[in-house]
Design goal:
Elements (H helix, E strand, L loop, with lengths): L23 E4 L3 H12 L4 E4 L8 H4 L3 E2 L9 H18 L10 E5 L2 H17 L4 E4 H7 L9 E5 L3 E2 L2 H14 L3 E3 L4 E7 L2 E7 L2 E4 L2 E4 L5 H6 L8 E10 L9 E3 L4 E4 L5 E4 L4 E4 L2 H5 L1 H10 L4 E4 L23 H4 L9 H14 L8 E11 L6 E4 L6 E5 L5 H17 L28
Parallel strand pairs: 1-2, 1-12, 2-8, 4-14, 12-21, 17-18
Antiparallel strand pairs: 3-7, 4-6, 5-6, 9-10, 10-11, 13-16, 13-17, 13-19, 14-15, 15-16, 20-21
Helix pairs in contact: 1-6, 1-12, 3-6, 3-12
Length: about 450
């Protein structure tokens, strides 16, 4: 069995020279940064995307590969519906097989309370013109007839899709380069260059690049980078363990989940499997600093989070990770090029056991790969996508809370228009940076 395929021994794919100047610098080579760079280039902007390690080597390739509209926050859903359309057109533009398939997503209910949650989302979906529909017990059994478990019902969205994230995001990056974006791997952004109170550029390990706008889309590293510049954002990261089975007979072509097991068919004939709703939170300075803001989410789902006393050395919220550094010294981002957490052994046992119990006819479940990823999350489970008012020229897009892969193209298009001052086509007030400090009540997004 192998661990996750991305590593620093892989050859650098993107090694353009650092430009002296550009219109926009993007910090972070995940799906949000790559998609934003592509749409900025299509609007005529010159863009340099800086990635400290490898494109998509962290959570953007470690996710489940779901492109789902179902279960989204009401304010996210219109952007996600646009993103689904964009995935189809971008896959054609890439001219690469990214494993894109319209096979649907199903959420399975064991309790009446879960069915009520599904019914509430179905009303949101209907308002937005999404074809999500509720299923009763018999319809659920007919949807996935191989299941040994009997469920009260389900909600399903047939137009939801899947893709292979470790293939799709690098393919988008190659498309962006063909369309004029400068992408540089192994190039950590160390500090912002702030002159007269506004963005003037970025200091990197390879030198300075001048720019009037900087987008920080650095996933789990965003809070650490921003705090070094006096910007506090209540972002934490949780670890999720995932595995890939060897090839199996097809038991379901799409993706499905209950509160114990999640699975989706992969392009290679196996299944990506994970423990539904299970994750680990490492306790560090930020975890204590922002604990109060996360209390409502923890109270709503008290058994989904397992706490660990401290993050491993070099992690963004580890106790000994430096919080301040100079532009001419090695930063924490160079000390850990790829955040590669170890998968949870107990979690892997639960994943295989639960998957085998749900589909006993498949016999022994053999894993071909296992990995874990750090999911950047916000207290209300929706992202921050906004200008930072205290530093003109600085834009932040983070806290996708495990939703980033699917919504990446749509959010990238939105952020590109936000940066250029064009009409974004959606109401972004839900994602404003100030909602955690302006006295607004915290409104939890759906934990579906």
């Amino acid at each position: 069995m192998t661990t996750f395929p991305f590593s620093l021994v892989d050859p650098v794919q993107f090694d353009a020279p650092l430009p002296d100047a550009c219109d926009v610098v993007i910090i972070g080579g995940g799906v949000i940064g790559v998609a934003t760079a592509l749409f900025l280039a299509r609007k005529g902007a010159s863009v340099a995307l800086l990635e400290k390690g490898r494109i998509a080597a962290e959570q953007s390739s470690r996710n489940w590969g779901w492109i789902r509209q179902q279960g989204r926050d009401a304010d996210e859903l219109p952007i996600m519906m646009e993103s689904r359309r964009l995935w189809k057109s971008l896959a054609e533009d890439c001219a690469e097989d990214i494993g894109l398939a319209e096979t649907g997503v199903a959420y399975l209910a064991r309790t009446d309370a879960e069915m009520q949650e599904f019914a509430e989302f179905a009303e949101v979906a209907q308002t937005c013109g999404l074809e999500s529909r509720l299923l009763d017990a018999a319809e659920t059994a007919a949807l996935i007839p191989a299941m040994a478990q009997r469920y009260k019902g389900a909600i399903t969205t047939p137009s939801d899709m899947r893709a292979e994230p470790w293939v799709a995001v690098p393919a988008l990056a190659r498309l962006a380069v063909r369309e004029g974006v400068t992408i540089i791997e192994n190039c950590a952004a160390r500090n912002l260059d702030i002159a007269a109170g506004r963005i003037a550029g970025v200091y990197t390990e390879k030198g300075r690049v001048a720019a009037s706008t900087v987008l920080v889309a650095a996933g789990a590293w965003t809070s650490l980078f921003l705090r070094a510049h006096g910007v506090s954002i209540p972002q934490l990261s949780v670890k999720s363990t995932v595995a890939a089975t060897t090839a199996l007979p097809e038991i379901h072509a799409g993706a499905a989940t209950d509160e114990r097991i999640s699975f989706r068919r992969r392009q290679d004939g196996g299944y990506t499997v994970a423990a539904g709703g299970r994750h680990h939170l490492y306790l560090g300075p930020d975890a204590f600093r922002h604990a109060g803001k996360y209390w409502p989410a923890l109270r709503k789902n008290p058994f989904g989070t397992r706490f660990r006393p401290s993050a491993p050395q070099g992690y963004p919220d580890a106790w000994r990770t430096p919080r301040v550094w100079r532009a001419d010294e090695t930063s924490p981002f160079e000390a850990m090029r790829i955040l590669d957490p170890a998968p949870d052994p107990e979690g892997l046992k639960q994943i295989t056991s639960r998957f085998r119990k749900l589909f006993p006819q498949i016999g022994e479940v053999t894993l071909k790969a296992r990995w874990a990823g750090m999911i950047d999350a916000m207290p209300d489970m929706v992202p921050v996508v906004d200008h930072v008012a205290s530093i003109p020229g600085l834009v932040v897009a983070t806290g996708m809370s495990g939703h980033g892969f699917g919504i990446g193209p749509g959010m990238g298009r939105v952020i590109a228009d936000l940066i250029r001052g064009d009409d974004v086509g959606h109401d972004l007030r839900r994602f404003r940076f100030s909602r955690f400090s302006d006295g607004s009540p915290l409104r939890l997004g759906p934990a579906l």
